[in-house]
Give the backbone structure.
Amino acid sequence: MNDRTAPHAQPASQSPDASPLALLLTPEGRALLDEVRDTDPTRELAVATRLRREHPAELVSAALGQARLRQRAVAKFGAQDAGRMFFTPNGVEQSTRASVAVYRARRLKELGVTSVADLCCGIGGDAIALARAGIRVLAVDRDPLTAAAARANADALGLAVLIEVREADVTEVDTAGYDAVFVDPARRGGRGRVFDPEAYSPPLSWAVGAARGAPRAAALKVAPGIPHEAVPGDAEAEWVSDGGDVKEAVLWFGTGRAAAGSGGAVAPAIRATLLPGPRTLLSRGLPDPAVRPPGRYLYEPDGAVIRAHLVAEVAQDLDGGLIDATIAYITADTHRPTPYATAYEITDRLPFSVKKLKALLRERQVGTLTVKKRGSAVEPEELRRKALPKPNGTASVTVFLTRVAGAPTMLLGHPVR
Ligand SMILES: C[S@@+](CC[C@H](N)C(=O)[O-])C[C@H]1O[C@@H](n2cnc3c(N)ncnc32)[C@H](O)[C@@H]1O
């Protein structure tokens, strides 16, 4: 049973000016959070009405709001952690998912890092992973509510001994005493996502300066769409995907793999990492792959490989080529399993024609059509509706809408099992 009357605690009802988070951190707030944990969104109104008879309205709405944020956070942090953590709407949106934060924290640990200044810590997604890797963290955020959430999370997860949270502007924080710096700048402004790295808060140039000043290593999280030209010559750039979705790019300093290698040699400065795994592909500095006619197999490279411009490395490993100079589909005559691309066996090649596709799907008794596209303006949903108005069998087919040597083409096939 929930204890709403802990003897020494100030009841939430006596602190009307407190932030929603402060209300939730009282014993009454914590008990209420437990009570509303599994509230079905469709029952929220009825639950709120009932709870308002016993608790202040602002506490009830804070608890229900927090329960909703925790449910949203499960996808990033897992049910166990998300159910104990505290979030703000922006904090849950902008936080690093645990799988990616853990990977990065492990890499810092392998670089010999023992303490990190986490500049722009948000609600603490990265700070938590760093602390769990045994790294001491100074976590800084200038937003008071966000910093309070980070502090509450360090407490809730038993990591407060390793995480010191400071509410401050990162540009005014002295990071001496920490052997690495991690910066995850805010990439959203009043009008949504910000694409220019100099419009990040703080700007990328400031973050690069902070990274260069770190004694051992640094990592800067940036948007995966960052242009390769914006990667500093003394950094290593890594694109990370999780479950096939590209999550971020990271600029690393101090890994010994920067582009400007010693003796004029160019060391691999680019990598693509696929999670879970991790599976990491390093740049070999290859030129673009040759274009060749489609063979029996088509490979769809992982998004991190494409963003990192490492399609040539995968094509070389597969003894394949491109179906078109401008399209990131690799083709080959034999099948070689690779973690870096999904392989399909191609059964048909047709010039683009909805009518022909429809006839072929009918003839093959297709019930499920997966549409993939690169280099085509056709809407996959619309094509599916027109080409397969109703399933007429149990077969599954994947159609690739693409260009082969410049010509709009449909390649049909199925994933290699
Ligand atoms: C992308 S979020 C960080 C997310 C965090 N890594 C996590 O996993 O939870 C960026 C954060 O930077 C903070 N921020 C932006 N500019 C700042 C500045 N100059 N000083 C301190 N914090 C700043 C914002 O308040 C926001 O919480």
Residues 57-82 form the longest helix (26 residues).
